[in-house]
Amino acid sequence: MARDLIVFGEDWGAHPSSTQHLVRLLAQDRGVLWVNSIGLRRPRLTARDLGRAWRKLRGGRRVAAAGPQAPFPVVQPLALPMAQGAPARALNRALIGAKVRGASAGLRRPVVWASLPSAVQALGNCGESAVVYYCGDDFGALAGVDHAAALAMEAELAARADLILAASPALAARFPAHKTALLEHGVDFSLFATPQARPADMPEGPVAGFYGALAPWLDLGLVAATARLLPDWRFLFIGAAAAGTDLSPLDGLANVVRLGPRPHDALPAYAQHWTAGVIPFLDNAQIRACNPLKLREYLAAGRPVVSTPFPALQSYVGLVRQASTAEGFAAALLAAAAGPAGPDTARQQAVATESWVARAARAAQLIEAL
Questions:
Q1: Positive or negative CA dihedral for 288, 292, 294, 295?
Q2: Pick the CATH number of 5-186+355-368 from 3.30.360.10, 3.40.1160.10, 3.20.20.80, 3.40.50.2000
C-alpha cells in the first residue's frame, strides 16, 4: 500500500510548481496533507509582506477542507519565518507540529516531503516515518531568499533526509550520492501539444513570447536591446512582476507587450501561436542549477525556442537556438521566423516521454523503497 505524504511546499494555488505537478499525481493513490510555506526570508515592513502575513494569519485559524483546486487538505501553519535560535526554533516546531498532527490524523505511515529548507523545523514532530527532501532550486542563489539561513537549514534537512530528489545534475552533485536521485522536471505533454485556438489578445505580426514571473533573473537589458533591433516584432510577456525586479530597461519600448498573468491551462494557446518562445535568463548560479518548466512546455508546444545558454539546454542541443548577445538573439529570432509555421514534431517528440506522470511514477518507486 502506498505511503501517505505530508508535503511542505509553497503556498498552494499559485502558478503550479514542480512539487504541485508531482504531488497532484502522487495523491491519486495515497493520502496527502499539503502544508503551505513557512517562508524563506525574514518579513519586512512593506505593504507586500504585511499583506502576505495577514493572509497567512487568517488562513492559520482553520484547516481548509481543500485549498484552491487542491484534491487534498491544505493547512496554513502559524510560524516565525526563518526563525533563528533555540527558543524560536522550538516555538516553530511546537506550532507547526500541533497544526500538522491535528490535520494528518488517519494518514498511513506518512512520509514528510519537504520542498523548502524551512520544513526542517517541523521534523520529528509530525509523526513521520521517513523524510524526503525535494530540491528544485539553488537556495544559496535564489532571488528573494535569505541565503545564509536557507543554506544552513538545507544542510540540516539534507543530513536528516532518507532520500533527496534533485531537479538538476548541478543540484544533485551537492548532496551525498548514496541517498540522492536525479528527478528532472516533466511536462504536461497532452496539455501543451494538443492544438488550441489563437488567443484573441495575441499581438499580430512576429511575436517573441515569454511566460512566467518577470523576475530579477531575467536579462531585461538583453530583451530591450533585441527589441530595438527588431522594431517590427512584438515581445510578449505573460506574468506578474516579482518584487524587486527593475523593469526600467523596458520603458518606452512600444513593441514590448505585457499581458499580466494567465491561468496555466491558457498558456499552451499562446505558446503554440507565437513565432518563437524565448528564455532570456541571466548567467548566474541560480540559473546554472535550474531546470525550468517552461523549457519542456515550449518544446511540447512545437514552436521554435530561443534562449540564452544555461546547462539544462544540453539535453536539447539542436532544438533550441542559443545566443548571448542582442545581435545573436535577433538573428536567432529571424531564423525562427523563416521556418515552418506549424508545430515541429522533432521538438515535441524530444519531450513526449518526459511527462509528469513518468516523473511521479519514479518518485513513488523511490519513496516506497525507503
A1: positive
A2: 3.40.50.2000
Q: Sheet containing 207-211: which strands, arranged edge to edge?
A: 256-258, 234-238, 207-211, 276-279, 305-307, 321-322
Domain boundaries, the chain: 5-186+355-368, 189-351
Residues in CB range of 37: below 8 A, 6 or more apart: 8, 9, 10, 11, 116, 118
User: Which CATH number among 3.90.800.10, 3.40.50.300, 3.40.50.2000, 3.40.50.150 corresponds to the domain 189-351?
Assistant: 3.40.50.2000
Listed in sequence order, the residues at least 6 apart from 206 whose beta carbon sits closer than 8 Å to its beta carbon are 230, 232, 233, 234, 275, 333, 337
Q: How far is residue 356's CA from residue 361's CA, in Å, rounded to a whole number?
A: 8
Q: What is the pLDDT of residues 308-333, one digit of tens each?
A: 999 999 999 999 999 999 999 999 99
Q: Please name which of 180, 130, 119 lies closest in space to residue 4, comparing C-alpha atoms.
A: 130
Q: Tell me: the pLDDT tens digits for 126-153? A: 999 999 999 999 999 888 788 888 999 9
- Candidates 142, 131, 105; CA nearest to 10 is 142
The predicted model scores a pTM of 0.89
DSSP 61-107: TSEESS-TT-SS-EE-----TT--SHHHHHHHHHHHHHHHHHH-TT-
